[in-house]
Design goal:
The protein contains 10 helices and 8 strands. With 241 residues, it is an alpha/beta fold. The strands form 2 sheets. The protein has a 6-stranded parallel sheet with strand order 5-4-1-6-7-8, sandwiched between helices. It has a two-stranded antiparallel ribbon with strand order 2-3. The longest helix is centred in the first third of the chain and has 22 residues. InterPro entries: 2-HAD (IPR006328), HAD-like_sf (IPR036412), HAD-SF_hydro_IA (IPR006439), HAD_sf (IPR023214), PGP-like_dom2 (IPR023198), S-2-haloacid_dehalogenase (IPR051540). Catalyzes the hydrolytic dehalogenation of small (S)-2-haloalkanoic acids to yield the corresponding (R)-2-hydroxyalkanoic acids.
């Protein structure tokens, strides 16, 4: 089988694919847990517990018919739920402190290969986000981490959270290209499977440390994607950048 036709644009999942959410959230949570008297608790476990609510939140949005809200709001709800699960009395916690803790998602560190890889890819392809993050979150993250996006797109722009097919199709529409001319780059097989079902090309970037070395929860969705790489730099090599 020959090589796939090159896409006209690359749309990136961000959390886990471009930035290392677990290490970043654990580092900041260690500080906040100490501030509320829970400094003996494992901050990496807290990061995992906070993130674990993410899929349930996405499913809950769809099942309940709840109107679209930015991810910052859902992250805050998930933070408070996690704290309650860990035995904290959320009602007694300082509101400004909780807001700053929630804002940790705006300050995530990039994977070491991300900025160089994106910069190389950007020289040949438009590079945009196709993330469930809201615009303010992704803009803050990009400025802090030096991520060279051409545009910040995704759920808040389309009005739909992935894996809703409209999130993928609306991104292609906004770029004025056919779905098959857009390639989703992601470290998550479930995200890629949903994108492929809408006609997008798919590039998988392996991030074995996203969950601290634990198996990815969506590994069962793995398919033979158009491209596969161990870093965004390697993806740039494979795409001739």
């Amino acid at each position: 089988m020959g090589s796939p036709v090159l896409p006209k644009a690359l749309a990136f999942d961000v959390f886990g694919t471009v930035v290392d959410w677990r290490t970043s959230i654990a580092r900041e949570s260690a500080v906040f847990l100490a501030e509320i008297g829970m400094g003996e608790r494992d901050p990496a476990a807290f990061a995992d517990a906070w993130r674990a609510q993410y899929i349930a939140a996405m499913q809950g949005m769809k099942a309940s018919g709840r109107d679209f809200v930015p991810l910052d709001i859902l992250h805050r709800e998930m933070l408070e739920n996690t704290l309650r699960d860990w035995g904290a009395d959320v009602a007694t916690l300082d509101a400004a402190m909780l807001a700053d803790w929630n804002h940790a998602w705006h300050r995530l560190d990039p994977w070491p290969d991300a900025v160089e890889g994106l910069t190389r890819l950007k020289a040949r392809f438009p590079v945009v986000t196709l993330s469930n993050g809201n615009v303010a979150l992704l803009l803050d993250m990009a400025r802090a981490a030096g991520l060279p996006w051409d545009a910040i797109l995704g759920a808040e722009v389309s009005g739909f959270y992935k894996p809703d097919r409209r999130a993928y199709l609306r991104t292609a529409e906004l770029l004025a290209i056919a779905p098959h001319d857009l390639c989703l780059v992601a470290a998550h097989h479930g995200d890629l499977a949903a994108a492929r079902a809408t006609g997008l090309q798919c590039a998988y970037v392996d991030r074995p440390q996203e969950y601290g070395g634990a198996p990815a929860p969506d590994a069962h969705h793995e398919q033979a994607w158009e491209w596969r790489a161990d870093s965004i730099i390697e993806l740039a090599d494979r795409l001739g950048c």
